[in-house]
C-alpha cells in the first residue's frame, strides 16, 4: 500500500470552460507503480468545480446554462458589495457542484463509464491557472 | 490493509426512480473480511447519480421535483440537437449531483445517520441497468 | 498505514448557518500520528451538508439565497404532508449538495486553497447538534 501526492496545473480559457482531465489523471497514475486503488482529485480553488459528464458540444453549453438559471449573471450578489470582482455567481456555483471526487482505478485505468469523463468546470468570469491535487492511493 | 473492488448492478424502473442501496452495499462489505474502513460508491454512468437522503414517499417526489425546476422537461437542450434522445436534462442533473460518495464504515456497518440512506437516482428518461463500482478499503 | 475514526459534534445556530470546520478537522488530524493521507468528512444527517466555499459575509448570504431559488420556502413539499415539520426544502437542498468530502492532507495540513474553507451548511429550519464522522487515513 502506498500514497503518492501530485499537483497538476491546468489553464482554463474562459468562464464556463470545461476541461476533460481524465487522460491527464490516468497519465499521473501510470507514472506511479500503484496498480489498484483510488485517486482523490481535489481542486484548490473556490470558483472552479470537479464532476463527471458526457462531454459533447451540446452538454458543454447545457451544463453552464443550467447553472446560470440557478445563479443568474444579472443578479445582485452580496459578495460583490465588498469585492466588486463580478464572481459572486461563480462562488455559489462551485460550492454547489463541489471541489472533489474520489475515483477508483484498476490496472491503472480509471473505472469511469464509457461516456463519462472527469472534468473541471471554470466557474469564474475569466480563464485562470488551476491547481489540482491528486492523491493516488493503493496497491503496487 | 486491503482493497477489494466489486461491481454491483441494479435495474432502475423509470425516470426519477430512487433506489436505496444502503443494505446492498453493506452486504458487499460483509462479504469481505474488511472490518473498518470506507467504501467508495461510484456509478459508471452519466445520467444517474449517487447521494444520501431520508427516503420517504414525500421526498421521493420532492427531490426529482426540485431537479425539474433546475432542468425543466420542456426546455430546448443543445445535447438534443445531435442525439435526439430526450435526455439533455438527465445529463445536467446527474453532473450537478455527482456520481460518487465515499462512506466510512466500522464493524462492517456504514456510518450513516439514522434517517440517512445511500441512494441512486435515475435521471434518464427510462429505467436502465446501472453498474456501480464499490471499492472497499480498510483493515481486516 | 493507519485508519482512525473520530466523531466531532458541532452546534449550528439557525437555518442557513455556515460553520467553517477546517481548523477543527485539522486539529483532529494533528491529534493522530498520521502525517500524510486524507480525511473523509461525513455528516450523519439528512438536512445538513458539507462543501467548500470562500467564507465571507457576502457568500454566507449568497449561497443560502441560491438554494432558496431552487427550493423556495413557500412551496408545498410532499414531505410535509406526512411530517408537518417544515423541512421538506431542507432535505432536498442537503441531498443536492451532498453529505461528504474527502480532502487530502500533507504534514497534517489540509490541502485546501488559500481562499477555500471546509464548511457545514445547516439546511434545517433551526439550529441543531450535528455529528460529523472523520475518517483519517494515511502514513504515520
In short:
3 copies of one chain form a homotrimer. Chain A is elongated and about 50 Å long.
Can you give a write-up of this model?
Three copies of one chain form a homotrimer. Chain A has 140 residues and is of the alpha+beta class. Chain A has a single domain (2-139), classed as Jelly Rolls (Sandwich), CATH 2.60.120.460. The first copy, chain A, is 26% helix and 38% strand. Chain A has helices at residues 22-30, 59-70, 78-83, 88-97; strands at 2-11, 18-20, 36-43, 48-53, 100-106, 109-110, 117-122, 129-139. The first copy, chain A, has a five-stranded antiparallel beta sheet, with helices on one face. Chain A has a three-stranded antiparallel beta sheet with strand order 2-7-4. In chain A, a hairpin with a 2-residue loop joins strand 5 and strand 6. Chains B and C meet through strand 3, strand 4, helix 2 and strand 5 of B and strand 3, helix 3, helix 4 and strand 8 of C.
**CATH class identity of chain A:** Mainly Beta
The H-level CATH homologous superfamily of chain A, spelled out, is YjbQ-like
For the termini of chain A, the CA-CA separation is: 6 Å
Uncertain segments of chain A are none
CATH topology name of chain A, in short, is: Jelly Rolls
Structural class by secondary-structure content of chain A = alpha+beta
Morphology call of chain A: elongated
Features of this protein?
homotrimer; 140 residues; alpha+beta; Jelly Rolls; 5-stranded antiparallel β-sheet; 3-stranded antiparallel β-sheet; 26% helix
Amino acid at each position: 500500500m502506498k500514497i503518492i501526492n501530485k499537483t497538476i496545473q491546468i489553464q482554463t480559457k474562459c468562464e464556463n470552460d470545461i476541461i476533460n482531465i481524465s487522460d491527464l489523471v490516468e497519465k499521473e497514475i501510470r507514472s506511479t507503480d500503484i496498480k489498484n486503488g483510488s485517486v482523490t482529485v481535489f481542486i484548490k480553488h473556490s470558483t472552479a468545480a470537479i464532476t463527471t459528464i458526457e462531454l459533447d458540444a451540446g452538454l458543454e453549453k447545457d451544463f453552464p446554462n443550467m447553472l446560470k438559471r440557478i445563479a443568474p449573471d444579472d443578479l445582485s450578489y452580496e459578495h460583490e458589495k465588498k469585492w466588486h470582482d463580478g464572481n459572486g455567481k461563480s462562488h455559489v456555483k462551485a460550492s454547489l457542484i463541489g471541489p472533489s471526487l474520489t475515483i477508483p482505478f484498476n490496472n491503472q485505468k480509471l473505472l469511469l463509464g464509457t461516456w463519462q469523463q472527469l472534468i473541471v468546470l471554470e466557474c469564474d468570469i475569466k480563464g485562470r491557472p488551476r491547481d489540482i491535487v491528486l492523491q493516488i492511493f493503493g496497491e503496487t
